[in-house]
Amino acid sequence: MQFDFATIAGLIIGLTVVTLAILTGSDIAIFFNIPGFLIVFGGTFAATLIKFPLSGIFISIPIGIRAAFTVQKEKPRDYIRQAIQLVKRARKNGIQTIEKNNLKNPFFKKGVQLCADGRDLDYIRKILTQEMAMAIQREEIGGKIFRAIGDSAPAFGMFGTIVGLIQMLANMQDPSTIGPAMAVALLTTLYGVLIANLIALPIADKLESKSAEDKALRSLIIECVFQIQQMQNPTAMLEILEPHLPEKQRQIGSGGSYTAGRDAKKRG
User: Fold this and answer.
1) CA distance 228 to 233
2) Which helix (H) or strand (E) holds 144?
3) 55 lies in some domain
4) How far apart are alpha carbons 115 and 95 in whole angstroms?
5) How many domains does the chain fold into?
6) Which residues form the MotA/TolQ/ExbB proton channel domain (predicted)?
7) 90 Cβ neighbours under 8 A, 6+ residues apart
8) What is the pLDDT of residue 229?
């Protein structure tokens, strides 16, 4: 895994632009208000607790954050290359020899271990599809939680503004206090809009995209494991697995293990 620099850069740029916009027009200290902060963050957190189970929040939020801020270092074509290398070894030395491998993806490694243990295809399919479903479900719940935060934060920002306006209107004996009180009342709306549109909703969208990518990648890995378990011919294996790649990435592998099947087919 490696950091997703797009997510990090987006947050840094967004926060920088907001901070510079504030600094060019006024003192940044006036944008800090503890009661408004507590209304927005506390209310949003409470609403999230009501919508989702406590266990789901504390499990799915870390998973969601990790998925949003990291990307898979290995690409789909790397898994095809690794699968072809393993099936060649299995055909040459026996399926048990693939137990020792350098696979870094734990899902792929587990599937290969099941093959090395001699498990049948139906058992492997059941185990891997269940694990994929649970992993995707946790990521999807993480996305739903961040979207719920994005929906609740502006609402509680508006609630804080209404509270501030009520307090202001109840104390209008001194007109000089109206301006500062109005500014404080509007700060909660600012907090809610920033939390929703700069953090929560973009992360929710990123998680939905990552969840779809992860599902496609795990489906490819499962198919790789099936081919290894059946000790498929490398040429046929390449033809079966390549459709899982985007069209531009097909037939571009470099190195012997990935292209050996295709090269052999051309020579034949």
Assistant:
1) 9
2) helix 121-169
3) yes
4) 7
5) 1
6) 100-213
7) 97, 98, 115, 228, 231
8) 93
Q: What is the pLDDT of residue 221?
A: 94
Return the amino acid letter for 206.
K
pLDDT of 149 higher than 90: yes
Residue 257 pLDDT > 50, yes or no?
Answer: no
Coil, strand or helix: which one is 3?
A: strand
Of the chain, the end-to-end C-alpha distance in Å amounts to: 39
d(CA 207, CA 135): 13
- The residue with tokens 């696979």 is 103
**Segment 165-193, tens digit of pLDDT:** 887 887 777 777 677 777 778 889 999 99
Q: What is the phi-psi region of residue 169: left when phi exceeds 0, alpha when psi lies from -120 to 50, beta otherwise?
A: alpha
What amino acid is encoded at 257 in this protein?
S
Within a domain: residue 265? no
- Tokens 């690794």 — which residue? 82
Which pair of structure tokens corresponds to residue 163? Answer: 């509270």
CB 30 within 8 A of CB 181: no
* Domain-located, residue 253: no
**Residue 231 region, left (φ>0) first, then alpha (ψ -120 to 50), else beta?**
left
Residue 119: φ, ψ to 5°: -70, 150
Strand-pair partners of 2: 71
**What amino acid is encoded at 180 in this protein?**
P
Name the phi and psi angles at 70, rounded to 5.
-135, 160
Contacts of 174 (CB under 8 A, 6+ apart): none
Mean pLDDT score of the chain: 84
Whether 152 is in a domain gets the answer yes
